[in-house]
Amino acid sequence: MPNNDFRRLRGSRSPAEFAAAVRRAAREIGEQVACDARYIGRVEAGEIRCPNYAYERVFLYMFPGLTLADLGFSARETVRGRGARTTTTPIHSDEESDVLRRAFMTSGTATMAAASLGLGTAPGASATARAPVADVSGTPGTYRRVGEAEVSAVEDAVRQIRLLDDRHGADGLYKRAGQPLRTAYALLDASTTSRGSMADRLHTGAGELALSVGWLAHDSGRFDDARSHYAEALATARVAGDPALEAHAFSNSAFLARDTGRPREAVRAAQAGQRAARLVASPRLLSLLTLREAGGWAGLGDRSGCEQALACAKALFERGTKEADPEWMSFFGEAELEGLEAQCWSALGDWARAARHARRAAALQDPHFTRNLALYSAELADDLARAGAPDEAAAVGEGVLDLLEEVQSSRVRTMLSETTRVLLPHRRSPSVSPFLTRHADTSRSSA
Q: What highest taxon heads this organism's lineage (predicted)?
């Protein structure tokens, strides 16, 4: 039965806009929820009859004076009671998802990897969910029809990787994320669900998981691994006929090509992504892909091509968010727009202009997303150093070192190391010397 009470509370906001409000409210009270438009849709459709405790606290904070019943939810004990009596329908509650996500992030074993995708023996899992779905060591397992439990767990694994990457960076996550990815593809390969919405979601979920793991490889400097994961996601997108997933794969591929010194490939990949994205009613998706193209032109030293692409990207961005915007694009706001433009001007050697945009990116970035704040600040420090402002560059660099106590990102550390080399001629400066000494000490301790 649809949850009309919850739908009325959303008002005129789109599901994506309402999900963003939920995430903001969660941060205000110290909760972490990976809320998105799909979750809101599931609540409004009545699929989620009672939220987990974290979502409960957020919703009651957002709507003071209302109870769960006022929000259209059932009492927790009635939902649990029904689940305990039902044996023919897979149960995958959001509380169970939290258990599985915690297991995924705290263990690298095959058992916990399976549990992270709703395939293990986590408390409350159904008989169907507990059945072996894939032996990730390579030996075929016993396969069953894929249901909501398995598909939702794949999607939840993607969200949790993105959430943790935003907070902590990629280095500590990459190896732990590979096992669930192999499990997801084993499930995809052997599933008897070959068509329909469930199959579409499974393909998209597996492809997005490949891209998330590929990004962890990319950000931690494992470029060959990243390239392989992005190619895997692209193949999955084409098999499934999923233009949004294809555009995402090309976006990441263009980003990787630019980062590894292949700017012409970056341009081609970005343009291919734009062709796929035209089948998705999302100006923001096209904007991001056009920014990827601009980065390629900048890498080629083509200022005119870069400026044209930047102008087009900004015009597309100004069209605003749409219902069709992919879930993964939640990171793409004004801060990222400024950050990507800063990278373009930096590649063209216009350091002062790059620094202006990097400064805006750092100022606009939500401080909860620590990794991106560290990235934009590292870009700013480097641009300032090259623009002839060593003292300010060192001060910003000190802030990046503070952030690196929370963030594990080889990409950010590499950028900061480049900045220290630029600042070496100023090592006798009383403003620069402490930063260079601290950076050297930090590098030695982390080696």
A: Bacteria
How many Å apart are CA 328 and CA 290, to the nearest integer?
17
Are 158 and 208 within 8 A, CB to CB? Answer: yes
Interacting residues of 92 by C-beta distance below 8 A, sequence separation 6+: 118, 125, 126, 129, 148, 149, 152, 153
- Only one residue has tokens 């950050």, namely 339
Residue at token pair 């990046």? 400
Collapsed DSSP state (helix, strand, coil) of residue 257 = helix
Angle at 283 between CA 279 and CA 285, to 5 degrees: 75
Contact 256, 230 (CB under 8 A): yes
Q: What is the pLDDT of residues 308-358, one digit of tens each?
A: 999 999 999 999 988 889 888 888 999 999 999 999 999 999 999 999 999
Extents of the domains making up the chain:
1-86, 363-447
Secondary structure string (H, E, C) spanning 284-325: HHHHHHHHHHHHHHHHCCCHHHHHHHHHHHHHHHCCCCCCCC
Determine what percent of the chain falls in helix, strand and coil, rounding each to the nearest 5. 70, 0, 30
CB 316 within 8 A of CB 196: no
Which residue, 282, 281, 225, 278, is CA-closest to 252?
A: 225
